[in-house]
Amino acid sequence: MVPCQDTPGIKVTYTAEITVDKPLVAVMSAVSVKSEEKDATTSYFFEQKIQIPAYLLALVVGDIVSQDISPKVRVWSERENIEDCAREFEDTGAILDAAVEVAGEYVWGRYDLLVLPPSFPYGGMENPCLTFVTPTLLAGDKSLVNVVAHEIAHSWTGNLVTNANWEHFWLNEGFTVFLERKILAKLAGPKDGEAVRQAAHLLGLNSLKYAIEVFGKDNPLTCLKVDLDDVDPDDAFSSVPYEKGSTFLFYLETLVGGPSVFDPFLRSYIAEHAFKSITSEVFVNYFKAHFPSVAVDWEAWLKTPGMPLVIPDYDDSMQQKSIQVAKAWSVGEISVDVWKSLSSKQVIATLTLLHNYDNITKDIIGQLESAFNFGESKNSEILFAWCRVCIKARYDKIVDRALQFVTTQGRMKFVRPIFRDLFAWDKFKQYAIRVFEDNKDFYHNICRSMVEKDILAAKA
Length: 460
What we know:
Elements: E1 12-21, E2 25-28, E3 31-37, E4 41-52, E5 59-62, E6 64-68, E7 74-78, H1 82-88, H2 92-103, E8 112-115, E9 124-125, E10 130-133, H3 146-153, E11 161-163, H4 170-188, H5 193-215, H6 233-236, H7 240-256, H8 259-273, E12 276-278, H9 280-290, H10 298-303, H11 320-330, H12 336-340, H13 344-354, H14 362-372, H15 380-392, H16 399-406, H17 412-423, H18 429-439, H19 445-459
Parallel strand pairs: 7-8, 8-10, 11-12
Antiparallel strand pairs: 1-4, 2-5, 3-4, 6-7, 9-10
Helix pairs in contact: 2-3, 2-4, 3-4, 4-5, 4-7, 5-7, 7-8, 11-13, 13-15, 15-16, 15-17, 16-17, 17-19
């Protein structure tokens, strides 16, 4: 589309004029300046005054409409979904305000959201001024909008302070997860905020353990700072830089004296390195300059594969109910009243924890499905966690529902683990491969190629 150097180490400003046939609309990762209509076309003019790397250049053209939900925030979607999308994301302005309190000035002008078609392979993409989000966030109860907090956090860590290359990806994603959870704590208020933040860190450890299990604990791609010589960055993509990175930052926070000390440091780090692309060494040196007496084995933390060297002693008070319910469900102690007392987030946590049990019988699965009908949940995270619990228990009845789920949306967070689980089940391995082959044109090319590699690994 444009001549550019595709590296996060180089940033540019841009302007654009996009002419489309009516009734199509064009939106970009920039501020809309004006539009001009002619008989059959509309020209849209955009300006991005802040330097960005090439990966944040985004353009969408479609029959889309918008709804303003605050002075700075607008939601875009396909026409038939706009009311649901606006309702689901109506608190985005409040999330942005909380982020400003945590991270400092928001410099991008607007923060618009665009809900993409279901084949979009990620939870979100942090294009400045125009975040992309997956429709799998439309749970109906706003319970999955933590993804929006994550993408908003990228406005500082990733978009302002950017990794110089993909070997330092944890500087983008580890910092953003850490900041996201600070934002969620701010939104929860002073009474519960810190417990909410630490519960999110605890839950994140589950996805980190899974990623390391898939790669192998000695795989160098599970290091924080990775060597990508002769490696496709897509092959290295996982939750490791997200969760291992945020765990490392939480550990550093505890070393220096907690949030009251680390929060001002974090804001100063962002302010000092805004509009730049940096390496891990830049962060290390900045930390050392501010905390010269704090001893950290930087080499080990950045270059040791597997789980983090230290798992912080997180506050699990917010997770205790889910821990207790998962334990009860694992032995068939099922109470409808207890289930009704759980929030959507607690149900997700409970099912995620339930997947860790090895003793779940098909009979227990049947009782849970009969009581709670998880297989028909409109909440994608609940359905995903439930499918994985059922597949692990070899509950045949879930297979078609699981395959329907992963062929009607293309979010890799859901698609790859469920296909991997089915590829590991001899009874349904070939069936799952056939279903994927029949539907592979539906997926984004990154998702499609990643699942194809999973199939090759399953056949090996």
